[in-house]
Each structure stands twice: as structure tokens, then as C-alpha cells.
Specification:
Radius of gyration: 31 Å
Distance between the termini: 78 Å
Largest sheet: 7 strands, antiparallel
Helix content: 25-40%
Number of helices: 16
Oligomer: single chain
Shape: elongated
Length: 495
């Protein structure tokens, strides 16, 4: 066993070895980070207090715009050196003392700002800025979920702590003023590295006109009054002490036009910020409400809410249906918040118990029923304007398609055109009759169900419409297995 003298000698030699290695290491040829920050601040950067804040991952372009709006003038520097992304600003300054880091290129991240617009945002860079008499250094980093950083991080050096606090205090309002998502149609989605919100998807705003929407008389007018009308008469309602926050539930069988109706509403509100949630993305309801609150007037669309009526949220140790969280977030908005919620469901019977336990969140429920005979005739003409059909043929097809949906009529016209194309002929009555016979045949029973039409029916016979899902409670007569898309599959308001 070595004695104490040998251990001390080994420690002395090893220490000298480390010192020699440090002295022998080639010094970085780049400009010193520490020297550059010292020149900008006028004091030793290690002596300056650091204040910091975090922002949602999707807010990178908004934080960058806010920073650049705050400064009277600024320049952006990058950093060269190994593992720079894993150190705090204080650690970077300490390591810079040994020339571990020097001035280098700025890291950028390309971010989508609109359907056909992208911008390069600072993903890792130092802002050397001036605001009035104060000088700042701000280190901005993008989120990096792959390595456990789920937020946009901002660390600020300011000679006076009060100046740094003033900078951070001004950012929320600047982010609101310069927000790139205002007036856009966005959908919240998760990222591939675990929990949390990933990048937004931005969508084109639909261009659906009123003539494109086929609903029974009075149905569309009710929706327009509740969603669009409140937006148009905002000031009068507030002056009368009425709240602007509203929730509208569209319910009915699949394929009857609920999603299409929402596309029309979006078309009528071009100035509204729209947030789309569907399936398991409803987990992000808190973030969606926060964005809507910031960027109002806003519309939050929650498709297929029945899919979360029984799903449990364990994120906070609770065991409540996710729908309760949705309704509570709706109730948490201020009375004067110009935010509308549009919910859709194929299963009102699943939603009703939750809505009864959380009353007042949804102001109006509107049934979007199966189209009647007049509606089916209008749909046939809407989807097949190129079909030159005599009125007696339209009446014949309408009689055969009782109990079918708008989606069924749309597919019927498409199949008619396809049959005509295969025969190299102009689409006409014979092709339409062949298409309806095919869709109503027994071999297309599942196809009809996928299109929302009722079961039953063979060629030449109308399918049985059957009862529409009503408001029956689970376990009671009329309760059926839940139809619709699987959770997490975005049906898509757009496209």
C-alpha cells in the first residue's frame, strides 16, 4: 500500500501535469467572448447580475421580435466552442476565461410564419444591445426537446439589476404587439421527443361561401349570430354588460357537414386568430386558450370532443375527463374576452353528462342533421355543377339516397365522374345511376358507414336511416359504440 508521502507526491505531479497541459493547449485564435462582452458593458461581465425567463417553444420568433423592438440598436454574435449549448450564461463566462469559447457564427432555426413563409430565427446567439442609457447582453436559445430543453430560454446581463428586470417586464407586451401568429390559422401538435407542444402548423384560411353550405333553414343563421354576430356587435354588448366569450356545440352524425360549416365560419372571420385542436391534441387546451387570450379576437376549434369525454388526464394527479379540463379552461377566460369556442361531436350522448356537470361553458348546441330531400338535391347540384341532369333524374337519386350524408353525396358525384372518365364519356344520368347503385349495394355497406350514411340498403333500395345518435346516456337504450376517427388523427378543418 502506498504511504501518505507517495500519495502527496502523486497529487503534486498530477497537478503539475494538468497545469502544463493547460499551458500547452493552443489558444483559440477567435476573438474572446469575455473581452467582447466587457467592451460592450464597460464592466467585468462576471460582476453583472443575470436575470432570466422562459417562453413556450413556439414563441421563438415572437421573443426575437420583442427583443429587437426593445433595443434602440443591437448586434448579434455567435459562439464557437464545444458543448456551448449545455452551459448557462454564467458557466459560459467562466469557461471563456480559459479561452474555451470565442466569437463565432450565430445558430439559426428556420420557423414557419405562414403557409408559404418561413424565417430564420436566432437559435443560439448573443444580442449586444443598447436601450437609452443602458447596455445589455441577452443570450437567446431556442427550445431543444431532444436534449430536454422544452422552452425558449432568455438570459440577460445588465449592469443594473433594475434594468434587467425592466427589460423582462416589457417583453410580454412586446410579444403580444409583434406576434407573428395574429390573424393566422394554426394547429397545436406534439413533438417527437416526448411531452409538450411542438412547432405550429399553419394552414390557409378557407374560402367557403354561404352558398357552399347546405343546411336546413335557420341552422346556419343561428351559428352566424352566435359566433360572427357577437364579433360584429362587440362594443354594444360590452356597453350593455354582456360577455363576449361564447361556446357553440355542433352535433350530429358523421358526414353531415359540421367541419364544412366551421370552414365557412373561418372564412367569415378573416381577422380572427384560429387555433385548431383535434383528438389528443386537446391536451394542449391550456396553451391554446393562452394564445387565444393574447391574440383575441380568436376562435378555438375543438373537433370530435366525444373522443376525450371519457379519456382521463393524469398529468396533475387528477383523474378527470379531459373534457372537464377543456370546459374549465373555457370558463377561466375573462367575460370581455372576445374568444369563441366551436366544438363538434358525433356523439352528443357522451358529451351531455360532462356539459351538465360544467354548465354555462357552452351557450348553444346546434344539431347538424342528415340532409332532407331538398338538401340532398342542393348537395347534388353543389358538388356536381358539371352534371347536366334533368330534374326527374335528380328527384330519382334523391329518393334513393334517403338517410345518406353530405359526404355520401360528395363521393357519389366523384364516383360518377370517375365512371364517365373510365368510359371516356361525358358524365351524365347513366353514370350517376351506376354510381348510386354501386354505393348502395351490399358490398359497399362499410363504405356507406365510413361516409356517415346509415346501414342497410341494396341497389335500388334506400338504406334505412336508423336513429341518429341522440342524447342517451351510456348504458341506456340507443347507446352505441363510438364512431369517428381514432384519437390523435387530425381530420382537418383545412383541406
Amino acid at each position: 500500500m502506498p504511504d501518505e508521502t507517495q500519495i502527496d507526491e502523486f497529487a503534486r505531479l498530477f497537478t503539475r501535469f494538468l497545469e502544463r497541459m493547460q499551458q500547452a493547449a493552443p489558444r483559440m485564435s477567435r476573438e474572446s467572448l469575455r473581452a467582447r462582452l466587457h467592451a460592450h458593458l464597460g464592466v467585468e461581465p462576471e460582476e453583472v447580475p443575470v436575470v432570466s425567463s422562459q417562453f413556450p417553444s413556439y414563441d421563438l420568433p415572437n421573443v426575437q421580435r420583442a427583443i429587437e423592438a426593445w433595443f434602440d440598436s443591437f448586434e448579434v454574435l455567435g459562439l464557437a466552442g464545444p458543448n456551448r449549448g449545455h452551459h448557462s450564461l454564467g458557466e459560459l463566462l467562466e469557461l471563456a476565461e480559459y479561452d474555451r469559447f470565442g466569437i463565432g457564427a450565430v445558430d439559426y432555426q428556420r420557423v414557419q410564419l405562414d403557409v408559404d413563409e418561413e424565417v430564420d430565427c436566432v437559435a443560439f446567439g448573443f444580442y449586444l444591445g443598447v436601450q437609452g442609457e443602458d447596455r445589455f447582453v441577452a443570450l437567446l436559445r431556442a427550445a431543444n426537446p431532444q436534449y430536454g430543453r422544452a422552452s425558449v430560454d432568455l438570459e440577460i446581463l445588465a449592469v443594473a439589476r433594475s434594468a434587467g428586470d425592466r427589460f423582462l417586464g416589457a417583453l410580454p407586451e412586446l410579444i403580444k404587439q409583434h406576434n407573428v401568429f395574429r390573424g393566422k390559422v394554426v394547429s397545436f401538435e406534439g413533438h417527437e421527443f416526448g411531452q409538450g407542444v411542438g412547432p405550429f402548423r399553419l394552414h390557409p384560411r378557407p374560402g367557403v361561401t354561404r352558398t357552399d353550405v347546405v343546411l336546413p333553414d335557420g341552422v346556419l343563421e343561428r351559428i352566424e349570430r352566435e359566433v360572427v354576430g357577437i364579433a360584429e356587435h362587440r362594443e354594444k354588448l360590452l356597453a350593455a354588460g354582456q360577455h363576449l366569450r361564447r361556446g357553440v356545440l355542433l352535433y350530429g352524425p358523421p358526414g353531415t357537414g359540421k367541419t364544412h360549416t366551421i370552414r365557412y365560419v373561418l372564412s367569415q372571420l378573416p381577422a380572427f386568430t384560429v387555433v385548431l385542436l383535434a383528438g389528443t391534441s386537446i391536451h394542449f387546451i391550456s396553451q391554446a386558450c393562452a394564445l387565444a387570450r393574447m391574440l383575441q379576437p380568436a376562435l378555438v376549434v375543438l373537433e370530435d370532443c366525444d373522443l376525450v369525454a371519457e379519456a382521463r388526464d393524469y398529468s396533475r394527479g387528477a383523474e378527470n375527463p379531459l373534457l372537464f379540463q377543456v370546459l374549465n379552461e373555457m370558463d377561466g377566460l375573462a367575460q370581455d374576452a372576445d374568444v369563441a369556442f366551436l366544438l363538434t361531436t358525433n356523439r352528443a350522448d357522451l358529451l351531455e353528462p360532462a356539459l351538465m356537470q360544467r354548465p354555462g361553458r357552452v351557450d348553444m348546441a346546434v344539431e347538424v342533421p342528415l340532409p332532407d330531400a331538398d338538401g340532398r338535391a342542393r348537395l347534388l347540384r353543389l358538388y356536381g355543377p358539371g352534371l347536366d341532369l334533368p330534374s326527374e333524374v335528380v328527384d330519382e337519386i334523391v329518393d334513393q339516397t334517403e338517410g345518406t350524408t353530405a359526404s355520401f353525396m360528395k363521393e357519389l358525384v366523384r364516383r360518377t365522374v370517375l365512371l364517365a372518365a373510365e368510359a371516356d364519356e361525358t358524365p351524365g344520368a347513366d353514370h350517376l345511376r351506376a354510381a348510386v347503385a354501386e354505393l348502395l349495394s351490399s358490398r359497399d355497406t362499410l363504405t356507406r358507414r365510413l361516409l356517415g350514411a346509415a346501414d342497410g340498403g341494396t341497389a335500388g333500395e334506400p338504406p334505412s336511416a336508423g336513429p341518429m345518435p341522440g342524447l342517451a346516456a351510456p348504458g341506456s337504450a340507443g347507446f352505441a359504440p363510438r364512431p369517428g376517427p381514432m384519437p390523435g388523427v387530425y381530420k382537418g378543418i383545412i383541406g
